[in-house]
């Protein structure tokens, strides 16, 4: 069983849960893979801590996923807020050849110590690009 485990974290209102649902839609509808998503957020719906996890089974013969939670270390980690970045440690992502990717937004994260220790870390200013290209930060989760 080859699973691909993804975690998206940020704060409510950034589109964290929407992004995770787009990933499972792309995996299941367009690639024909079994995929599932779980989500959690703090009591504050907007502005509070929020995260979602996606599990995709890469074996097309698998019809369902037996355990829907992504487990650390993740294959892919997307971090969109400073509060989430403060929680990240280097051992949160895998170090295998085709996994262990970290994507984070420097326009919302000023200090990210964990990113320096992860070899496959990519800094993309998604909120800044969303404003420049589309005139609204709402599109940051789709960049």
TrEMBL record:
<dbReference type="InterPro" id="IPR052554">
    <property type="entry name" value="2-oxoglutarate_synth_KorC"/>
</dbReference>
<protein>
    <recommendedName>
        <fullName>Pyruvate/ketoisovalerate oxidoreductase catalytic domain-containing protein</fullName>
    </recommendedName>
</protein>
<dbReference type="GO" id="GO:0016903">
    <property type="term" value="F:oxidoreductase activity, acting on the aldehyde or oxo group of donors"/>
</dbReference>
<feature type="domain" description="Pyruvate/ketoisovalerate oxidoreductase catalytic">
    <location>
        <begin position="12"/>
        <end position="143"/>
    </location>
</feature>
<keyword id="KW-0560">Oxidoreductase</keyword>
<dbReference type="InterPro" id="IPR019752">
    <property type="entry name" value="Pyrv/ketoisovalerate_OxRed_cat"/>
</dbReference>
<dbReference type="InterPro" id="IPR002869">
    <property type="entry name" value="Pyrv_flavodox_OxRed_cen"/>
</dbReference>
<dbReference type="Pfam" id="PF01558">
    <property type="entry name" value="POR"/>
</dbReference>
């Amino acid at each position: 069983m080859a699973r691909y485990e993804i975690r998206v974290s940020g704060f409510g209102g950034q589109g964290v849960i929407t992004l995770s649902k787009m990933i499972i839609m792309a995996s299941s509808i367009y690639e024909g893979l079994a995929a599932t998503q779980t989500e959690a957020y703090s009591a504050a719906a907007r502005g509070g801590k929020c995260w979602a996890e996606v599990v995709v089974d890469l074996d097309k013969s698998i019809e369902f996923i037996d355990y829907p939670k992504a487990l650390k270390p993740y294959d892919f980690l997307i971090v969109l807020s400073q509060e989430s970045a403060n929680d990240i440690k280097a051992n949160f992502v895998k170090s295998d050849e085709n996994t262990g990717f970290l994507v984070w937004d420097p326009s919302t994260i000023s200090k990210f110590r964990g990113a320096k220790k992860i070899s496959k870390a990519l800094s993309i200013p998604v909120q800044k690009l969303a404003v420049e290209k589309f005139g609204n930060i709402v599109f940051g989760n789709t960049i």
